[in-house]
Design goal:
The longest helix is centred in the N-terminal third of the chain and has 35 residues. The chain has a three-stranded antiparallel β-sheet. It is about 65% helix and about 5% strand. It is mainly alpha-helical. Helix 3 crosses helix 4 and helix 5 packs across helix 6. Among the domains are: about 60 residues, Multidrug-efflux Transporter Regulator, Chain: A, Domain 2, CATH 1.10.1660; about 35 residues.
Length: about 160
């Protein structure tokens, strides 16, 4: 095996470069920690832990019965539906399912949106394309709305005929 000779100058230069990079990295970490510490100090101390009970979290428990309350993260929704998270993200990208966003920008899904995602997945499993799936769901929703309107009008018609007798 051939030996590689490195001149003392190259070795010293490499040592100095490595030492400089390490010093630079340590300096960056120190500065970042100072910035974080200052921001915590201006907010009144360390941030609350995840286990601490806040009044906001307790008050939001009433929202869990609401079908439109965005209670599920992308991971939770994917686990409940038995799909990959990428599937849910692709529905958002295709504007077929638009979840709400948390303050941090993360997707949050409601139970109504989970039902819609399950319908979409079923149509995909039956072999329909994305465009066909969107059209089918749109037509199904229109038909359901028309049935609701017919039932409401029949109820009004029945009420009017009873009042006339």
């Amino acid at each position: 095996m051939p030996s590689i000779s490195i001149t003392p100058r190259v070795t010293v230069t490499r040592f100095l470069t490595d030492t400089f990079l390490i010093a630079l990295t340590v300096d960056c970490v120190k500065r970042a920690l100072k910035i974080i510490w200052r921001s915590w100090a201006t907010r009144g101390g360390l941030p609350a832990t995840r286990r601490s009970a806040s009044p906001v979290a307790v008050n939001n428990l009433d929202n869990l019965d609401d079908l439109d309350y965005p209670a599920f993260t992308t991971g939770q929704a994917a686990d409940l539906l038995g799909v990959r998270q990428a599937f849910l993200r692709s529905l958002d990208t295709a504007n077929l399912l638009r979840p709400q966003r948390s303050e941090g920008g993360h997707r949050r899904y409601s139970r109504r949106q989970l039902h819609l995602a399950a319908r979409i997945r079923t149509l995909f499993d039956e072999g329909h394309s994305l465009a066909a799936t969107a059209r089918i769901i749109g037509l199904e929703d229109d038909l359901a709305a028309a049935h609701d309107q017919i039932a409401e009008l029949r109820g009004q018609l029945g009420t009017n005929t009873e009042q006339q007798h």
